[in-house]
Specification:
Blueprint: H1 2-93, H2 96-110
Length: 112
């Protein structure tokens, strides 16, 4: 009976040691997973910050583009008005050569 008890104690000690080792391994796995999760959260935050910065830059670029388009429209209207004034001057003064030179210059600047 004593031998049987000693064998049982030995078996239980082995199982306790195995369970303890398994607990340590699981603890290490949990720590590794937590570290990886923390690193991923930091990377995610960095990516969100980058997206936010890029979004701001895009918004500013769109605003600047819209401003430039508005300025271009204004300048085209002004150019049209100048052409009409030039036509009126030509009608009044009869200086077609002056008009043709001016129109050529205006058209060349308009095509830029």
């Amino acid at each position: 009976m004593r031998q049987r008890l000693m064998a049982r104690i030995k078996e239980l000690n082995f199982r306790v040691e195995s369970l303890f080792q398994e607990k340590l391994e699981l603890g290490n796995m949990v720590n590794n997973a937590e570290n990886k999760s923390e690193m991923l959260m930091i990377s995610l935050q960095e990516m969100e910050d980058t997206i936010s910065d890029l979004s701001k830059q895009l918004s500013e670029s769109i605003d600047e583009h819209q401003t430039r388009l508005g300025e271009e429209r204004r300048l085209r209207l002004e150019l049209g008005e100048i052409k009409m004034e030039l036509d009126q001057v030509q009608l009044i003064t009869g200086e077609s050569g002056f008009k043709n030179d001016a129109i050529s210059k205006l058209n060349s600047t308009e095509n830029m």
